[in-house]
Write a structure and sequence with these properties.
RRM_dom, two-stranded antiparallel sheet, globular, RBD_domain_sf, Nucleotide-bd_a/b_plait_sf
């Protein structure tokens, strides 16, 4: 264990603890491989059958406003996020196979 300014860190010795810490939230999913035509409404409609959604964001270029092909979906519970991840990973949305994984801090 490491202690930095009174904070105990177990990340070096426990990869599971590190992976849990690295996730931004256990209820936030990264969705990659989106069609450039996919908007937040389409993304929300595709994921809402797995649970209550707090936030949906499709990331767009700051100048052109064009989608960058990925986004995030945040659920109210970890169970809903896990269900969505299992069901939606590698599914087709707007003609593209999407990639779904837990979001990480970046």
């Amino acid at each position: 264990m490491q202690s930095i300014n009174g904070t105990v860190r177990v990340f070096r010795k426990n990869p599971l603890a590190r992976s849990l810490w690295v996730r931004n939230s256990c209820s936030k999913l990264f969705v990659g491989g989106l069609s450039y035509d996919t908007n937040e409404t389409v993304l929300k409609n595709a994921f809402e059958k797995h649970g209550e959604i707090i936030e949906v964001r499709v990331i767009a270029h700051h100048v052109s406003g064009k989608s960058r092909g990925y986004g995030f979906v945040r659920f109210t519970s970890e169970a809903s996020a896990i269900a969505a991840l299992k069901e939606m990973h590698s599914q087709v949305l707007d003609g593209r196979n999407i990639r779904v994984e837990f979001a990480r801090k970046g």
